[in-house]
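Thread: Newbie trying to understand structure tokens

Hi all, I'm a second-year student working on a class project, and my supervisor (Dr. K.) asked me to get a predicted structure for one chain before our next meeting. I've only ever worked with sequences, so writing a 3D structure as a token string is new to me. If someone could post the tokens and maybe explain what I'm looking at, I'd be very grateful. Here's the chain:
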Amino acid sequence: MTQSPTILTCTDGSHYASSIYQHASWAASRLDAAIHVLHVIEREDAPAARDLSGSIGFHASSELLKQLAELDEVHARVARLRGKAILEDAAEQLGAAGITSVTTTQRHGSLVETLDEFEEGAALVIIGKRGEHADFAKGHIGSNLERVIRSARIPVLVASREFKLVRRFLLAFDGGPSSLKAIHDIATRPFLKGLECHLLAVGKPDSTLGRDLENAAVSLRGAGFQVTSDLLPGDPDDVIAGEVGKREIDLLVMGAYGHSRVRQLILGSTTTHLIRTCLIPILLYR
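---
Reply by user tm_fold:
Sure, no problem. This is what the structure looks like when written as tokens:
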């Protein structure tokens, strides 16, 4: 008997939590999947008892050091209790949405390491665009998000602030390995079947990209999708964002971080720009 796939759902109780659970419920219904909710208490969230004498000076009394260590223990206990409440709330919201197979896990340490532990057999990772400590005013994405995207071996769905039922998706195609992986995955799994599909490439009309784009469209049409495709000139950030708005796209699909890390540090990244600026969920492939 084939085991049902799992959707790994990351939560930290941020403003994105309810939307994350709604995205997870939607994905689970389309993939006939179970949901595994993960809450990771990272080191800065729950500082462990440690030797503080070096940071406060040699003359501090042993009683003060003891009190500081006890305070750390209290912080750690509060973090565990808060995490437990977050997971209970997640299970309750998912149950109310009709999801019958939900498991929850709390871990201390690294979210990336925790996902690596549970990734085998999982079909998808869902995570919010920004976590509890992100700066909403400046539009920053969460630091955990970038690490997850760069390390995950399975697709990552970045949830938007508000959930909206997906009717049409746009796949930003560049002919690279990540784009081809996305085409194959979408064509062979039920996740996006029945949804309106738009393929978009940004480049020169006389390039080989146009031929690759048409081949991708043929593959998806062969899998039963109704597909429109366009090859447009311009800056990828602007063109993709413009087409998302023009076509009233509900889900953006794209490859993640196609250039080298050093190049991105110098020139920026289409992936990061679109995660930061698009108000819709983004499905990312590496």
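A couple of things are worth pointing out once you decode it. The first helix runs from residue 17 to 31. The first strand starts at residue 6 and ends at 10. Feel free to ask follow-ups in this thread.
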